[in-house]
Amino acid sequence: MNHFCHSTGSAPETPQPESTTIGLSYDTWKAIWRRPARSTKLRWSAIPTTPARTTSRWEDAIAHYERSLALDPEHGMAAANLGVARAAAGDVPAGLAALSRAVEINPRNLPAWDNLAKLCMVAGRFGDAEAAWRAALELAPDDPPLVLALGTVVAAQQRVDEAVTLLRRAVALDSSAVSAWTQLGVALFMRHDLGSAGEALRRALALAPENLSARHHLSMVLLARGDRDSAVRELDRILLIDPAYVPARLDLAVHALDAADYDRALGHLDAA
Prior knowledge:
Radius of gyration: 21 Å
Order of helices and strands: HHHHHHHHHHHHHHH
CATH class of the domain at 1-125: Mainly Alpha
Shape: elongated
Distance between the termini: 38 Å
CATH topology of the domain at 1-125: Serine Threonine Protein Phosphatase 5, Tetratricopeptide repeat
Structural class: mainly alpha
Number of strands: 0
CATH architecture of the domain at 1-125: Alpha Horseshoe
């Protein structure tokens, strides 16, 4: 099931009809909430800069949906779309408020629950995100991306065993989902089940050999198992794919320092 009609990096040419709920890109949302930040503003600033012309279109959309709500305060789709437009324009708290109102008006609006959960993640409100995704899953119990999202937020709250159960269900529902295998590997690594973690991450890499997150986590699993040489090889492979991937540079700098190869360590740090 695809709940995402538009990404946060682009705006509709014209405001969408209130009968259609627009959405946030799943990949963009993940990139936002996983980056370290100290405030909602900083988290949202992780999104690539939106061109002024695009921002203006979001502002036009906001005005359109606000007019709709002024005429009919119980217009749930307008409230849901207002929430997405406000968040895409950079005002996450206002987006949260509008989406909260949307699901209050219509508790069966699945995309609104999903978008609300994503914005809660951006704001660091993991418990609220979990509650919103559980509400979404009441409407679509076997939706693979929703099960994956719930497993991810449960893992973020350090409930690792529960997360592993959910993520195993996610890969059972969709065995081709690279992100589900990756997140399962991460959760198993958090549980110190290194063998199973490595297997899950290799499943992800079999599907997408250039997936940097899966390969980076595999390097950490290998290092935890005491196989430093294999861990370093995985990091070197990452740099062949993307020489600008900072986490791999930093890890390789640490390995070089451990080997007293200071010039190599400085080279990685300079490139990071």
